[in-house]
């Protein structure tokens, strides 16, 4: 098992206590802490002030790829084995809109999910301290720091309202 | 987040929500076992019938000149329609931030996936040589042939394939945080299983940041998809010149009908299931009343569409159209035509009354009428039009056989079996979304704007 990242984990019951701790950590210049919560929460999002996720760019790219692939596939396949029916054009883009539309949705969705997984994996939490209560009714804040800074961080979290504080090497 | 009144919020704490939903997993209650037994029995009926169809061919079913789209295609349209309510509730109402969807959306989303899985079987059963179904897909082959992309039947292949893939993706993505919550509550092999399925979810701010955005875009993509899928299904008919099919109102008419039938199935599934899983305090009258309002809306659209179909047939002056619709009401299939009109157009109007909308037993009874009515709607549209085509000398009859009914029964068993197994294995109420509705405790008085 990999060694856990050194740091302090604070557990909070109250939402405003957790946001106070986030503001206090940011005031100290810390940006690399992790906040755990069982459900997305706007107060935590506002306190953290993250930029909007870049997943949307991949949604757009996936959708455009699917649309282009839909038209390209249908037009190329129609021309590859041309069957003339009633003197009508071999490749007719209007009915192919349906195929292109479905592939737009399909590729947009699959690339969105791939991007969600990729961006989540870029900041892994495997080696960070975690408590099962964070998927239940508690909010967690893990602050990575050297053991020498433990007392300072512990005090900050406790003062904000943390109900439980522990170290990575406890 | 939409502001909601206190009475409409879930009344549990975060911990109680996790506890109550986790308690439903692995249920052994007698009601559940009976329902599962019934579903498996029905499925076996369908399986045996299918084996006979494989051995003896489609002649066992009631195909007869000129009706070569009959019960199997009726079942296909019926089951695709059932799925639509799930996506409406899970995706469209998510975009509208509708607060009442949270407790019911997981069950409806699962219903969508299993209904589309069921629907997908029918074109395969219907083609006769089931083992070459993959000829529908565009793949390089030794015959140097590509499918005909101008055919609505091929549009259907893409629409249903995309719908199944996107709905399954949407369901799985929504499940991840809830599976992680279950992982943290169970032990032993179950914990190992849920740990693997939760793919490292911890609910960190980074995960939520990408998850919430990604989920929003998935919902935004699923919304036009759900509207397109039943439109494409309707074009299987409307693109043909057959009287009774060739109508421009078919796409919105089919989409409204699909949502209406889907909500009917939601009632039929959730009313017994919430009792068996002891979830009456989470899935309440409040949720059912809102579902009933949606039923009323879509049922009224259907009422209008039925009237408009008859009006257009009369106003068109086309004798074939007029004859088809006359025969739907007064011909040999009058009983099916009136079953569809009474169950869909008239029964839904009972939901104008709040007393009925808030009476769970009444809603269950109405939902059975909806299921029957919507199956008959597709049966009437498909078969009555084919029976009475442009050439009266070619008119014919349709006599469904035991093979038709066996496959229909099997489809209900197949669908219910998956749904019940899902309800026993995964959180049937979305833990994370219900928690999002519950205010967290505060150390200071007052709330967040």
Written account of the structure:
The complex is a heterodimer of chains A (170) and B (449). Chain A is built from 5 helices and 4 strands; from the N terminus they run βαβαααβαβ. Chain A has helices spanning 15-27, 42-48, 55-80, 93-121, 150-160; strands spanning 7-12, 34-36, 139-144, 164-167. A 4-stranded antiparallel beta sheet of chain A has the order 2-3-1-4, covered by helices on one side. In chain A, α1 packs parallel to α2 (42-48) and α3 (55-80) runs antiparallel to α4. The longest helix of chain A has 29 residues, at 93-121. The mean pLDDT of chain A is 92. Chain B is mostly helical and 449 residues long. The longest helix of chain B is centred in the middle third of the chain and has 34 residues, at 205-238. Chain B has helices at residues 14-23, 30-56, 71-95, 105-126, 152-183, 188-197, 205-238, 250-276, 285-316, 319-330, 334-346, 354-357, 360-387, 402-425, 431-437. Chains A and B meet through α1, β2, α2, α3 and α4 of A and α1, α5, α7 and α15 of B.
Looking at this protein, list some descriptive labels.
heterodimer, A: 170 residues, alpha+beta, Alpha-Beta Plaits, four-stranded antiparallel sheet, 5 helices, 11% strand, B: 449 residues, mainly alpha, 15 helices
CATH overall fold name of the largest domain in chain A = Alpha-Beta Plaits
* Helix/strand order of chain A, N-terminal first: EHEHHHEHE
- Percent in helix of chain A: 40-55%
Structural class call of chain B reads mainly alpha
Q: How many separate structural domains of chain B?
A: 1
CATH superfamily of chain B: Formate dehydrogenase/DMSO reductase domain
Overall tally of structural domains of chain A: 2
CATH secondary-structure class of the largest domain in chain A: Alpha Beta
Q: What are the low-pLDDT stretches of chain A, counting only 5+ consecutive residues below 50?
A: none
Number of helices of chain A: 5
Oligomeric form of this entry? heterodimer
Query: How many strand segments of chain A?
Result: 4
Radius of gyration of chain B: 23 Å
Main sheet properties of chain A:
4 strands, antiparallel
End-to-end separation of chain A: 16 Å
Q: Biggest interface pair, residues each? A: A-B, 66 and 63 residues
């Amino acid at each position: 098992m990999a060694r856990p990242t050194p740091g302090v984990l604070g557990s909070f019951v109250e939402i405003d206590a957790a946001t106070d701790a986030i503001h206090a950590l940011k005031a100290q210049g810390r940006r690399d802490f992790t906040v755990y919560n069982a459900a997305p929460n706007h107060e935590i999002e506002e306190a953290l002030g993250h930029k909007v996720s870049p997943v949307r760019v991949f949604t757009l790219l996936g959708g455009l790829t699917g649309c282009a692939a839909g038209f390209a596939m249908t037009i190329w396949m129609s021309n590859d084995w041309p069957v003339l029916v009633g003197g009508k054009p071999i490749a007719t883009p209007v009915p192919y809109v349906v195929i292109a539309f479905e592939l737009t949705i399909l590729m947009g969705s699959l690339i969105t999910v791939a991007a969600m997984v990729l961006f989540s994996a870029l900041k892994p939490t495997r080696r960070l301290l975690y408590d099962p209560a964070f998927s239940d009714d508690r909010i967690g804040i893990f602050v990575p720091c050297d053991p020498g800074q433990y007392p300072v961080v512990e005090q900050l979290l406790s003062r904000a309202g943390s109900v439980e504080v522990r170290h990575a090497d406890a | 987040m939409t502001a909601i009144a206190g009475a409409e919020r879930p009344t549990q704490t975060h911990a109680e929500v996790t506890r109550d939903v986790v308690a439903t997993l692995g249920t052994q209650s007698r009601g559940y076992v009976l329902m599962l037994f019934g579903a498996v029995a029905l499925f076996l009926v369908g399986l045996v019938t299918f084996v006979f169809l494989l051995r003896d061919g489609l002649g066992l079913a009631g195909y007869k000149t000129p009706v070569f789209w009959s019960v199997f295609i009726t079942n296909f349209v019926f089951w695709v329609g059932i799925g639509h309510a799930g996506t409406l509730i899970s995706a469209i109402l998510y975009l509208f931030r509708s607060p009442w969807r949270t407790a019911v959306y997981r069950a409806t989303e699962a219903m969508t996936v299993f209904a589309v899985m069921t629907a997908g079987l029918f074109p395969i059963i219907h083609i006769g040589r089931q083992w070459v179904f993959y000829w529908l897909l565009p793949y390089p082959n030794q015959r140097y042939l590509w499918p005909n992309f101008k055919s609505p039947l091929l549009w259907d292949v893409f629409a249903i394939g995309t719908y199944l893939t996107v709905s399954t993706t949407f369901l799985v993505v929504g499940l991840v945080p809830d599976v992680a919550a279950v992982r943290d509550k169970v032990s032993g092999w179950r914990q190992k299983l849920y740990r693997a399925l939760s793919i490292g979810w911890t609910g960190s701010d980074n995960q939520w940041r990408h998850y919430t955005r990604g989920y929003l875009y998935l919902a935004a993509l699923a919304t036009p998809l759900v509207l397109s899928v039943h439109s494409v299904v309707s074009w299987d008919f409307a693109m043909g010149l057959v009287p009774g099919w060739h109508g421009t109102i078919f796409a919105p008419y089919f989409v409204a009908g699909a949502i209406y039938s889907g909500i009917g199935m939601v009632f039929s599934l959730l009313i017994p299931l919430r009792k068996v899983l002891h979830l009456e305090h989470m899935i309440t009258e409040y949720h059912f009343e809102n579902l009933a309002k949606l039923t009323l809306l879509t049922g009224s659209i259907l009422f209008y569409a039925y009237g408009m179909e008859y009006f257009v047939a009369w106003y068109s002056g086309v004798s074939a159209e007029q004859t088809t619709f006359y025969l739907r009401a007064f011909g040999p299939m009058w009983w099916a035509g009136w079953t569809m009109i009474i169950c869909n157009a008239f029964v839904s109007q009972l939901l104008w009354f709040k007393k009925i909308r808030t009476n769970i037993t009444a809603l269950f009874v109405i939902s059975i009428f909806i299921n029957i009515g919507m199956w008959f709607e597709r049966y009437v549209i498909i078969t009555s039009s084919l029976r009475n085509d442009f050439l009266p000398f070619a008119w014919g009859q349709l006599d469904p056989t035991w093979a038709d009914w066996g496959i229909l029964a099997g489809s209900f068993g197949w669908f219910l079996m998956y749904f019940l197994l899902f309800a026993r294995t995964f959180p049937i109420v979305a833990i994370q979304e219900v928690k999002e509705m519950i205010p967290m405790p505060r150390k200071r008085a007052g709330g967040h704007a």
